[in-house]
Description:
Strand order of the largest sheet: 1-2
Number of domains: 1
Number of strands: 2
Amino acid sequence: MTTTAELVVAKIEQAILECPLAEQISLDGHSVSMPDALAKLEYWRNRVKREQGGKPIIAGFNLQRAF
Length: 67
């Protein structure tokens, strides 16, 4: 079953592949700058990883090293 996050990643990737050198691309009828599109792509890829259990939402850290 395809999740919403996976569908969004596919849409953004397709839009970028159609116009890789464009300064702006169209996502669902909205004009988005390429840096914003790449940031959205990174966000949604991370969301897919979290949904699949591959990346924790909060990074763990070692409190013993803080002191």
